[in-house]
Amino acid sequence: MKAKSQSSEGRFAYEGLDRVIHERARLSVLTSLVTNPRGLAFGELKQLCALTDGNLNRHLRVLENA
User: Fold this and answer.
1) Which of 17, 46, 47, 57 is 20 to 30 Å from 39 by CA-CA measure?
2) Quick check: 45 and 32 in contact, CB under 8 A?
3) How far apart are CA 8 and CA 63, in angstroms?
4) Alpha carbon of 49 to those of 22, 23, 39, 64: distances in Å?
5) CA 30 – CA 6 distance, rounded (Å)
6) What is the C-alpha to C-alpha distance for residues 12 and 56, in angstroms, rounded to an integer?
7) 33: number of CA atoms within 13 Å, CB side?
């Protein structure tokens, strides 16, 4: 059996995954929003995803732009 070489993207980089939505923090944001259809305040979303203000803001911008 031939050993797999690691790509520059890392050992968890699988074809077919979209980095925009499958990045851990953004997937957490999307999951939190989907499971709370009435929406969440920024502070609630930040707490659920265990992110800082700046991190959450950045991930929300990436999702919005996509």
Assistant:
1) 17
2) yes
3) 24
4) 14, 13, 14, 17
5) 28
6) 23
7) 13
Per-residue model confidence as pLDDT tens digits over 7-54: 555 666 677 778 888 889 999 999 999 999 999 999 999 999 999 999
- The pTM of this model reads 0.72
Q: Residue 24: name the closest of 35, 8, 13 by CA.
A: 13
CA distances in angstroms from 48 to 4, 14, 28, 37, 64, listed in the order given:
36, 26, 8, 15, 19
d(C-alpha 64, C-alpha 53), whole Å: 16
Name the residue type at position 58.
R
CA pair distance 12, 10, nearest whole angstrom: 6
